[in-house]
Every structure is written in structure tokens, then in C-alpha cells.
Design brief:
43% helix; single chain; 351 residues; 6-stranded parallel sheet; Rossmann fold; binds nicotinamide-adenine-dinucleotide; 2 domains
Length: 351
């Protein structure tokens, strides 16, 4: 067996903790990529994986992405992420999340969790019965609730900017947007886009979400494998990572990629592939920072909606700056974004 240090996504993680509690069924990973800018913060994912090695890879890639995201939105937090492997068959959800809360205590404040894929504010409530290293709570002094609507709002603002910049249209009305994943973030984004007059084409593995989107948002439903080739102006990946890969890249017809999913690019070279095809890629960790901004406000001890709103405008300003640099230099947007984030982390280290 090869060592974690040789893992292609290890990237000098400060700490990778395997968490296990056979009594409850908990198996997971808490990955702390960096605490240079402060204690790490990022959501916990609850998902089924074919192999436990895939869960480790997901945790490592997601926690590194959180380092970049948290630096990008200038909050006093480094990057970390939790992954809990969803058991097959029946399980006691409360017992798993309680055990996970106790595991967070063992990481000792180097990592604060909140919601991610497959996790709800009620799971955060259960975690909170065991630990204080948790946000995204619905009750408490600075409680901020589910971060997903704020994430969707940030993506919506960035998407609007990208449409104006790339397509020369001042608003979203009449723009077609294909959305992969109608979960907590994807559905809220769909609602905002619908309210702004966009035409929606959607795909999900969850039939109930599709029916709801058809009924409430007049969305056109396509098969999960067909979403990549939809002839839409914008493609918004809002499911799991790796939506843009060597198979899907040649299929894309959208002129803009702007969505909530973390790690949309299966490999870094996809950014160059998108740029070569004239597709504007809005880097995921630049546009989906709304949720962690909301979490950071809660973690500061006083939830401040005005500060959050200003920070959401900041996402658009950062995206505009990156696109401007891209237009001037021809370098792809992902490379430019990563350079900015890494420079901020390096400055934090020097300080
Ligand atoms: P969620 O679990 O609520 O939703 C994910 C949705 O994707 C579900 O409806 C699921 O059925 C669907 N899905 C899964 N596999 C699919 C496939 N192959 N094709 C189509 N749909 C599929 O999760 P969420 O909180 O909405 O997060 C969505 C994405 O946004 C994730 O990548 C997450 O890491 C990222 N993100 C979320 C937040 C947040 O605030 N929740 C913040 C930043 C980034």
C-alpha cells in the first residue's frame, strides 16, 4: 500500500485524520490542508463512495480547495473539509453525526465544520450536542443556518456578471442555463434564475427535485449524461466534482461555466481546454464562496448580514478582476485565480 504522503492530492496537508466508530457506523476523514490564515473551515460531505480510497481523495481535494476559497474571500480561516462515508443499507444517522462531533473534538479546533453535500442543518444540530467546532446552526447567538441559499446568491451574482461580460446582455432574461444538480444550492439558484427570466434545463438523480423544477420553474428535464451537451448559454455544475473532464469537455456547447460545485475541473488542464474553446470558466472557489462567508460571520461570534452582503458583492469584484486579467494576458482564469489565492496564503505565512 502506498503512503498518504505519496497521494497525488496530498499537497502538504497539515493533518489528515481518519475517524472511525464501529458502534455508530462512522467512517470518515477530516482533512486540514492549511491553518496559515486561521483555523480551517469547510463543510462536511456525507456521501456513498465505491471505495474508501475515493473518499480520501475527495477529502484531500476538497480541503485544498477550501484553502484557496477562504483565502480568496479574505476570511480568517484556512482550508479543511470533512467526509463521512455514507453506509449502504440502514443506519442510525443521529449516532453517526454524534460520533463525528466527538471526532471533531479530537482534531482540537484546527477544523470547523458546516453543511456540504448530503448534510443538513439538523445534522449540524446533532454535531453541536458534542462539540463547539461547528457552524451552519439554526439556533444560537450567531446562528446563520443553512449556508446554501447564500452560496446560491453569490453564484447568481457572478453568473449575471459573466453573462454581461461574455454575452453583452445586461440581465438574465431569456438566457438559457443548464443546471447539473438541484440540491440545496442548485435548486435555490434555479429559483433565482427563473425569477430573473432565464430558461432552465436541468438534470439530477433525484426524481422529486426534477418534478418540482418542472412544475414550479417550467424547467426542461434532460438525462444526467445529456446535461453536458445541452445547447445553453451557461452551464452551472451544482452536483459533485469533476463535471468538466476529458469526456465532457468536447461536448460542451455553453459559452460560460458558472456553478456552485466544488472541484468542477477533474484535472487542472481542463481550464486550458475551456479557454482554448472560448468558454469562459468562472473558477468554482471564486463564485461559490457565499456559504463559507456566511459560516465565517457565524464563527466570528456575531452574525452580520450586511457584512455578508458586502462580501457577496466582493465575489463579483474578484471574478471581474480575474476575467480582466484573462482578457489582457490570455492566461486561463483558473491559473490566475490560483495565483491570487496562493499569494495571499504565502503572505499570511510570512506575516
Ligand atoms: P446537495 O446534496 O444538497 O445537492 C447535490 C445534488 O446533486 C443532489 O440533488 C443530488 O441528487 C445531485 N446529484 C448527485 N449526483 C448527480 C449527478 N451525477 N447528476 C446530476 N445530479 C446529481 O448539495 P449542495 O449543498 O447543494 O452542494 C452542491 C455542490 O455545491 C457541491 O459540490 C458542494 O460541495 C458545493 N458547494 C456547496 C455549498 C453550500 O453552501 N451548500 C457551498 C459551496 C460549494
Amino acid at each position: 500500500m502506498s503512503s498518504i504522503f505519496d497521494h497525488p492530492d496530498f499537497d502538504d496537508h497539515e493533518c489528515v485524520t481518519i475517524v472511525s466508530d464501529p458502534d455508530s457506523g462512522l467512517s470518515g476523514i477530516i482533512a486540514v490542508h492549511s491553518t496559515v490564515l486561521g483555523p480551517s473551515a469547510g463543510g462536511t460531505r456525507f456521501w456513498m463512495y465505491d471505495e474508501s480510497a475515493d473518499a480520501i481523495t475527495d477529502a484531500l481535494r476538497l480541503s485544498r480547495a477550501m484553502s484557496l476559497k477562504n483565502a480568496m474571500v479574505s476570511i480568517p480561516h484556512g482550508g479543511g473539509k470533512g467526509v463521512i462515508i455514507r453506509p449502504s443499507g440502514t443506519f442510525d444517522r443521529e449516532a453517526i453525526f454524534s460520533a463525528y462531533g466527538r471526532a471533531l473534538n479530537r482534531v482540537g479546533g484546527a477544523y470547523y465544520t458546516a453543511e456540504d453535500v448530503g448534510v443538513s442543518p439538523d445534522d449540524m444540530r446533532v454535531i453541536h450536542t458534542q462539540t463547539s467546532f461547528v457552524a451552519g446552526l439554526e439556533e444560537g447567538v450567531a446562528a446563520s443556518g443553512d449556508p446554501s441559499p447564500i452560496t446560491a446568491d453569490g453564484v447568481f451574482r457572478c453568473l449575471k456578471f459573466a453573462v454581461t461580460h461574455k454575452l453583452g446582455q445586461a440581465d438574465i432574461s431569456g438566457i438559457s442555463v443548464s443546471i447539473q444538480g438541484l440540491g440545496h444550492v442548485g435548486y435555490t439558484l434555479a429559483e433565482q434564475l427563473h425569477a430573473a427570466g432565464a430558461k432552465l434545463i436541468v438534470a439530477d438523480i433525484n426524481e422529486a427535485a426534477l418534478t418540482k423544477a418542472q412544475t414550479e420553474l417550467n424547467a426542461q428535464v434532460v438525462d444526467i449524461d445529456a446535461i453536458f451537451a445541452v445547447d445553453a448559454d451557461v452551464f452551472a455544475p451544482c452536483a459533485l466534482g469533476g463535471a468538466i473532464n476529458s469526456q465532457t469537455l468536447p461536448m460542451l456547447k455553453a459559452k460560460i461555466i458558472c456553478g456552485a460545485a466544488n472541484n468542477q475541473l477533474a484535472t487542472a488542464d481542463m481550464a486550458e481546454g475551456l479557454a482554448a474553446r472560448g468558454i469562459l470558466y468562472c473558477p468554482d472557489y471564486v463564485v461559490n464562496g457565499g456559504g463559507i462567508i456566511n459560516v465565517a460571520s457565524e464563527l466570528s461570534g456575531t452574525y452580520d448580514p450586511q457584512w455578508v452582503d458586502g462580501k457577496l458583492d466582493g465575489l463579483v469584484e474578484t471574478l471581474a478582476d480575474i476575467i480582466k486579467q484573462h482578457d489582457v494576458t490570455g492566461r486561463n482564469t483558473d491559473v490566475i485565480a490560483e495565483e491570487i489565492a496562493l499569494a495571499r496564503i504565502a503572505a499570511g505565512k510570512r506575516a
